[in-house]
Design a protein that fits this description.
Elements lengths: L1 E10 L4 H11 L3 E10 L2 E10 L3 H12 L4 E8 L10 E10 L4 H11 L3 E10 L2 E10 L5 H15 L1 E7 L6
Antiparallel strand pairs: 1-3, 1-4, 2-3, 5-7, 5-8, 6-7
Helix pairs in contact: 1-2, 3-4
């Protein structure tokens, strides 16, 4: 059984998810993880699938969807999930304020320097108001008070507000 990462990016239109998922199902690929969003009218989706087809066979099957070049599709084989579970805790970083150049770079650098692994990141710009929400796994050795202080210092320097709180447990 092979595992593939598939990306689909391009001009949004109704039916992209239905078209992609139908082709994958027809090829016997099981969709195991996915994320999709619209970014200012542009469609962006990443999927992880398992199945017996080759990357080339999947690309060929999906090629009909790129038609006039409105969608760019990539397929690559990836190793099975080998990420060790977090030994620390899951947290949510929320940051908001007037839009400034470098907000994402500065905030994520603080998290990375603490050994944090960002597992989800969303940003939105509405007029001049910027919002960042990131889910992050932090090692158990992190000094949370120090990390909150560092994030607060970065936020203050950028003229925005930041908060870090424990994430709620997903209930499936």
């Amino acid at each position: 059984m092979h595992e593939y990462a598939i990306t689909v990016v391009g001009q949004d239109r109704p039916g992209i998810i239905a078209d992609v998922s139908a082709i994958l199902a027809e090829r016997g690929l099981n969709l195991t993880d996915s994320t999709m969003t619209l970014l200012r009218g542009h469609f962006a989706m990443t999927l992880v699938c398992t199945g017996g087809s080759s990357a080339e066979q999947i690309e060929t099957a999906l090629a009909s969807l790129s038609g006039d070049g409105d969608l760019v599709l990539t397929v690559r084989e990836v190793a099975a999930d080998v990420t060790p579970p977090s030994s620390g805790g899951r947290y949510v970083l929320s940051l908001h304020g007037a839009d400034r150049l470098g907000i994402v770079a500065a905030a994520t650098r603080v998290l990375a320097s603490a050994g944090g692994n960002i597992t989800d990141l969303t940003t939105r710009l509405s007029g001049d108001f910027y919002v960042l929400v990131a889910e992050v796994d932090l090692p158990s050795t992190v000094d949370l008070d120090r990390l909150v202080g560092e994030l607060g210092g970065v936020a203050s320097g950028l003229g925005v507000e930041a908060s870090l709180r424990p994430a709620e447990t997903d209930v499936l």
